[in-house]
Amino acid sequence: MALAILSFAFTYAIIHLDGATGPTRLSSNARQFGTTIEFLRDHAVLASRPVELHVDLDRGEWLIVVPPRPSESEIDRQEQEEVLYTDPTRFPRMIQFEGIQLDTQKTETSGTVVITFNRLGEITPNGFIVRILSQEIADREEASFSIEVNGLTGEVAYLPGFAPFEQVVDGDRFR
């Protein structure tokens, strides 16, 4: 139920940004996407169950997937819950995903990226940057916005422009 309310709230907020300027609309959409990440991390911990965020880079949309709880006994597996999906949330016209940078060498620019939050709040992939782009802003630097997710703390940072990917946390060590 909470996920359905969250999905509706984000969809409503995105739709009602039509009167904002290009940079304001870009910043607001970046923050709404980052807030989704923060909410899902917290929800996974509070509900003590994994949650997934499926990001479709081609369509500029994302949806929340709540898989069944892991079962240890055969009876539990037979009575397992269904997988829950929210309706996709989409960026407004003229705003799109530029890509998700997973490490210093790898950036996903198409397809679907799955971000998993386990019941302890740990995030996979472990540290990444989501970049979104506005097609209505002419200046390349102003048209980009970066959302950095820290691999150690799960903290989300909002950075106007194209933020460099300087470090990736791999377990307990930086590389």
Annotate the secondary structure layout.
Elements: H1 2-15, H2 22-47, E1 51-56, E2 61-66, H3 74-78, E3 84-85, E4 89-90, E5 95-101, E6 107-108, E7 112-117, E8 123-124, E9 128-134, E10 144-149, E11 156-160, E12 169-170, E13 173-174
Quickly list its features:
alpha+beta, minor pseudopilin epsh fold, 5-stranded antiparallel sheet, 26% helix, globular
Can you give the helix content as a percent range? Answer: 25-40%
CATH class equals Alpha Beta
According to CATH, what is the topology? minor pseudopilin epsh fold
| Overall CATH architecture | 3-Layer(bab) Sandwich
Would you report the number of β strands?
A: 13
Distance between the termini: 40 Å
By secondary-structure content and strand pairing, the structural class works out as: alpha+beta
Tell me the radius of gyration: 17 Å
* General form: globular
Question: What pattern of helices and strands is seen along the backbone?
Answer: HHEEHEEEEEEEEEEE
Strand share of the residues?
25-35%
Low-pLDDT residue spans: 167-175
Output mean pLDDT. Answer: 80
Q: By CATH's scheme, which homologous superfamily applies?
A: minor pseudopilin epsh domain
Structural overview:
This protein has 175 residues and is of the alpha+beta class. It has one domain: minor pseudopilin epsh fold (3-Layer(bab) Sandwich), CATH 3.55.40.10. The protein has 3 helices and 13 strands. The chain has helices at 2-15, 22-47, 74-78, and strands at 51-56, 61-66, 84-85, 89-90, 95-101, 107-108, 112-117, 123-124, 128-134, 144-149, 156-160, 169-170, 173-174. The strands form 3 sheets. Strands 1, 2, 3, 4, 7 and 8 form a 6-stranded antiparallel beta sheet that branches. A hairpin with a 6-residue loop joins strand 10 (144-149) and strand 11 (156-160). The longest helix is centred in the first third of the chain and has 26 residues, at 22-47. The protein is globular, with a radius of gyration of 17 Å. Mean pLDDT is 80; it is low at 167-175.
